[in-house]
Amino acid sequence: MLASRTKRQRMLYAVGASLAAVGLMAGCSAETGASNTEPTNASVEGNSATGDTITIGFSGPAADHGWLGAINSAALAEAKKYPDVDLKVAEGTNDANLQISQVEGFINDKVDAIVLLPTDGAALTEVALQAMAAGIPVINVDREFSSTFAARVTILGDNYGMGVSAGSFVCDQVGDNPNAIVAEIAGIDSLPLTQDRSKGFSDALKDCGLVVSNRVAADFTVQGGEASTSQLLAAAPKIDALWNHDDDQGIGVLAAIDAAGRDEFIMVGGAGSANAMREIQNPASVMKATVIYPSTQAADGIRLARLLVQGKAMSDLVEVEIPSRIVLNAPVVTSDNVDRFLPTAFES
């Protein structure tokens, strides 16, 4: 009875998250009760119609990570789709002070909107507030500001949902063994996103009576993933399931697993790299799944900034205003659906 109930709970969570993500995509919509067929600012045709040219400033961290590189390239590609968008791109940086000065430059240039993936959400909050006070809407991507007043729109991946998705998959695979040993390789423990992922994972495992038995933290790099995994494998002579938070560091994780000659467990990745998905396609690999953390967030931010400044709305919603907060879904990729996700996956 408990297994059936908790499985239904996980299904409801996944369906609810999927519905939230669907609202982000511009698909077909019907103007319920409309008396004419003219395009409006809340229709697909109205959304895509060329409007007044707007200038969008975009700033993000340095692309020193496969996922971050994909974030930046997707944003640039999205802007090129629109002849009415002039995109000003600041050089990627991991220096919060430099990024603050970049945003100040956008404010001085009187851009129409700013899409900002902050290297540190708290550190960039004050300058984002300044932009908002100057009448420039800010679209906050991935790492949240510490004030809700610092952004008109916040668009996020679902870090807690990633953990839930990973934990639910582990439960489905080994949950019938009450003594299953579950291991976890986190990212940087001081980051809220890592804490959220770990909490979601732990909460989902509780549904099938499991806990994390062995845990280490890495640093989102290949080298860190390999070193931390070697440490974990030495401490845990037997593992049934392992979740690695990040597919970029997962290259090192897999290298350590191969070097140790371990293959008695299943592995779940995180973020959704092409490398991980090719591993999933290999029946001999321990890698059986990965959880998507969308690399489209800044591209979505560009699209939303355009709609916002041009006074348009999202065509899949009845609401005539752009939402203030959007959280994207965290689906699980397995051998059953990998062909759907691989073509748009990023390379680590």
Estimated structural class: alpha/beta
CATH topology value of the largest domain: Rossmann fold
Radius of gyration: 21 Å
| DSSP helix fraction | 40-55%
- Integer count of domains: 2
What characterizes the major β-sheet?
6 strands, parallel
Instruction: Give the SSE order as H and E letters.
Output: HHEHEHEHEEHEHEHEHEHEHEEH
Which regions are unreliable across 5 or more consecutive residues at pLDDT < 50? 1-36
Task: Name the overall outline.
Answer: elongated
Residues in β-strands, percent: 15-25%
- The N- to C-terminal Cα distance equals 42 Å
- Total number of helices: 12
Mean pLDDT across all amino acids: 89
Strand order of the largest sheet: 2-1-3-4-5-11
The top level CATH class name of the largest domain: Alpha Beta
Supply the CATH superfamily name of the largest domain.
Response regulator
CATH architecture of the largest domain: 3-Layer(aba) Sandwich
Number of strands: 12
